[in-house]
Each structure stands twice: as C-alpha cells, then as structure tokens.
Amino acid sequence: MTRVLVAYGSKRGSTAEIAGWIGETLRGQGLETEVADAGTVRDVSAYDAVVLGGALYAGRWHKDARRFARRHAAALSGRPVWLFSSGPLDRSAQEGEIPPVPQAARASAALDACEHRTFGGRLTHDARGFLASAIAERSGGDYRDQDRVRDWALRVAAQVAATEQAKS
Ligand SMILES: Cc1cc2nc3c(=O)[nH]c(=O)nc-3n(C[C@H](O)[C@H](O)[C@H](O)COP(=O)(O)O)c2cc1C
Domain Flavodoxin-like spans what residues (predicted)? Predict the structure, then answer.
C-alpha cells in the first residue's frame, strides 16, 4: 500500500483545511494518506510521498513548513514531494500561477519538489490581531477554490501512482 503524508503549517486553520481536502482526494484515489501539522511530524520514513503546504504571512512561508523541509530533506531524498502555499486574499491565485515566495522556492530546491502551487487564502472578517484585523477589514473573505485544490490533488495522486508503478 502506498502511503502519503500531507503536512501543513497553518496559523488560522485555512491551510490545514486545504491539506484536509488534499488528503480526502488522495484517499479517494486509493492512497493511504495521513494529514498532519508539520510541526508535529518526527519521522517521515514510513511515507512513499509527501505533500507539504504552508500559509503565507508577510511574504514568508509558515515556519512549521520551513522547518519540516529543513528537518526532513535528507530522509525525503529520492521520494516525490509536492509543495503548496496558501495566501492571496483576492482572485489572483485562480487567475494564474503565482510563483513560490523565496522560502518556499528554497524548500522546493532542497526537496527537489515535483511542483509548487499557490492557492488562495482565507481571512475571516473577525480575525484578531492589529495587522490581521486591518487586512481583514480591507480584504477579508474566503478565496480558496476547493475544486482547484482537489484537481491538483488528483494530479498528485496520478503522479504518485505512476512513480510507484515504475518502482515495481
Ligand atoms: C498579517 C497577515 C499577513 C499576511 N501576509 C500575506 C502575504 O504576504 N502573502 C499572501 O499571499 N497572503 C498573506 N496573508 C493572507 C494569509 O496567508 C491567508 O489568510 C491564509 O489563508 C492564512 O492561512 P492560515 O489560516 O492557514 O493561517 C496574510 C494575512 C495576515 C493576517
């Protein structure tokens, strides 16, 4: 059985939810999939493939995603890895490919990732914190496109299956 880990770095829960959609889709394609907070994962040796996502804050990739990439780079060498970021509070992520922020690009290089995707984000109008509430007032809302996330997860599933088949 092929095992996949979907790990995420999320502050306000919306990236965690995207990871959950990806996990559900992969499971629907017959892959044994675990979804976990990237900060809690100690060992990746049991997984054949990994999807790692992080929320974007002030142009930075969530620290748990960054740390996961650093900590597990050696163990994941030779295993397929896909990355995603979640952030834009507008429709830009639906309208075209948004390149990774520098930290996610570095993780992509370190993990030799197959692909990186940027998905829209969510900030609720009642978000707390000085900066967050100011941003929420201007551009709060849910800009995540669940269909786009699930379509991407289907592509990941197909590539995982192809990699596993090539091994056997
Ligand atoms: C203070 C603050 C800074 C943010 N900076 C960025 C940013 O630099 N780029 C971006 O695309 N989104 C940015 N966002 C939007 C978040 O990435 C978005 O709300 C995301 O969905 C949060 O994910 P989470 O709920 O998993 O923490 C910012 C949001 C806040 C509150």
Answer: 4-157
Q: Cα of 45 to ligand 1 centre, how many Å? A: 31
In angstroms, rounded to a whole number, what is the distance separating the alpha carbons of residues 65 and 60?
A: 10
Q: Which of 6, 123, 146 for mutating ligand 1's site (highest number of atoms within 8 Å of CB)?
A: 123
Per-residue three-class SS string for 26-94: HHHCCCEEEEEEHHHCCCCCCCCEEEEEEEEECCEECHHHHHHHHHHCCCCCCCCEEEEEECCCCCHHH
Domains of the chain: which residue ranges?
3-163
Ligand 1, closest atom to CA 123? 19
pLDDT in tens, 28-55: 999 999 999 999 999 999 999 999 999 9
- Per-residue pLDDT tens over the stretch 123-134: 999 999 999 999
- Among the atoms of ligand 1, which is closest to the Cα of residue 144? 21
